[in-house]
Amino acid sequence: MTADEITPLALLSAFQLEDGRRWGEVAEVFQREDAAAVFDQGAVRRHNLLRGRGMSKTTDVAGVALALLLTQAPARSRSYIYASDTEQAGLFMDALAGFVSRTPGLAGAVEVGARLVTVRQSGASLSVETSDGASAFGLRPWLIVVDELGVWPNTANHRRLWSAIVSALPKVPGSRLVVIGTAGSPTGLGAKVWTEAEADAEWRAARNPGPSPWWTPAEIAATQRALTASEWRRLILCEWAEGEDSLTTPEDVEAALRAAPIVNAPRPGVRYFAALDLGTRRDLSAFVIGHSEQRQGGRVTVVDRLAYWRPGKGKAGRVDLAEVEESVRRTAREYGVRAVLYDRHQAEGLTQGLERSGIHVEEFVFSASSVNNLARGLYIALRDRALELPDDAELREQFLATQMVETATGVKLRNPVGAHDDIPTVVGMLHTHLLEQGGGRGGVTSVAHIQRPTAQRRAGDTAAGRRIMTAALRQAERSGPRLPGGAIIMPGTANDPERVARRGAGLRRGL
């Protein structure tokens, strides 16, 4: 068979993976069917491939695109890749470059740059494009790859970009569109496109839900424990579900409550930590002291003492910060607490008074990762019975009213209109701090109530939220399969094992 007679599927099957085996040796049936459908020039030109995380989405579509460039793409044709962000597009290019570097004969045939791949003989190219809708009009693409459409924001710019993509296809004979990703919000752009693809004969819509066929039972169980219910439905089961959950259930709250005593007296030898969520006008100020202890079922965060202050009535009503300061000072000394961490934007004046009285204060810097850690850690602690709380009516009400919603960088707590989340916030910060400190030195964590960020760069901090990793996941990280999609899942983060390892994050999203 001459080079001109090599089929794209045969070429893709020969691409070498990281472990030295060929793609064709390990590909599952659904991978082969999706690739063959895209390669079929007589079939539909638009493909929407929905897969669970860890099921080789990025790796497969990179290999498909490379095989198309080498076998079917017309001379000097232009193809484009659009992704949810530049990092995701970079992962696509890394996967493609890996095939070129590992597979004998490809390095001399293909030139790979940071954002551009070119076949030397034909001049056919594929480039990474920005998400600017206006600049996409006027292009004449032979192939367009859209990666992770389900997480594209439903903005005017991205809707305009999608319009530019689909309206460009008729310009070039034989052109095709490949959309690949997992599910997202049912009101998002990805859900709208998926619904249209299922009903339109011009589309091939293929849904392959997870869990990934090459995950072990331990990996599946650990991943499900680390995800919220809606995350599991979207990211693993490929269901279009809202990214909003109640923080907890009545059953989980009841399991966390202790009937008595309401206040645990300080005990010798116990290292106590504390947290303060400071509000003045509309919100309560809440203060807790607690500790971490090992029990038969695992480590538990115990809230030994809870106090909260309501703003006075009327427009001028405020929390008496002098009273808050005195209470923090008194109880910190009673429980042997020595340091106060605080957010200077809300609590600087109060902590200055504490410092003058001999209590050391340190600024606590909020970030997207700490907000994500707080919400996710609290959710997992309640679900896994790793939290003991005093039985208090206000605490019950706030925990049952608080919601956990997704952001561009992870999750956060949110209180519905007319409700408060001050007590869950302060308990969550205490729990997260105890996890990070490992029950180490005593101190007070003073956390002022702030507005959580709702839109930040997606890849920056989300990995730090995945701090709970089981022994099975650690073993899989060291020696588990690294075939297409064989990496451990890390929802909402980049698919880069080296970066994940540097951050010590835990769960990793599959390719």
Describe the 3D structure:
This protein is α/β, with parallel strands linked by helices. It has 3 domains: 3-235, P-loop containing nucleotide triphosphate hydrolases (Rossmann fold, 3-Layer(aba) Sandwich), CATH 3.40.50.300; 246-448, Nucleotidyltransferase, domain 5 (2-Layer Sandwich), CATH 3.30.420.240; 463-503, no CATH class. The protein has 18 helices and 19 strands. A hairpin with a 2-residue loop joins strand 17 (403-407) and strand 18. Helix 1 crosses helix 4, helix 4 (57-71) crosses helix 5 (86-102) and helix 12 (321-334) packs across helix 13 (344-356). It is elongated, with a radius of gyration of 26 Å. Mean pLDDT is 80; it is low at 439-511.
What layout of secondary structure does this protein have?
Elements: H1 8-14, H2 23-26, H3 29-39, E1 46-51, H4 57-71, E2 78-82, H5 86-102, E3 110-112, E4 116-119, E5 125-128, H6 133-136, E6 141-147, H7 156-168, E7 176-181, H8 189-199, E8 203-208, H9 217-226, H10 229-236, E9 244-246, H11 250-256, E10 257-258, E11 273-278, E12 285-295, E13 298-309, H12 321-334, E14 339-342, H13 344-356, E15 360-363, H14 368-383, E16 387-390, H15 393-401, E17 403-407, E18 410-414, H16 422-437, E19 443-448, H17 471-479, H18 497-503
Parallel strand pairs: 1-7, 1-8, 2-5, 2-6, 6-7, 10-16, 11-19, 13-16, 14-15, 14-19
Antiparallel strand pairs: 3-4, 4-5, 9-17, 11-12, 12-13, 17-18
Helix pairs in contact: 1-4, 3-4, 4-5, 12-13, 14-16
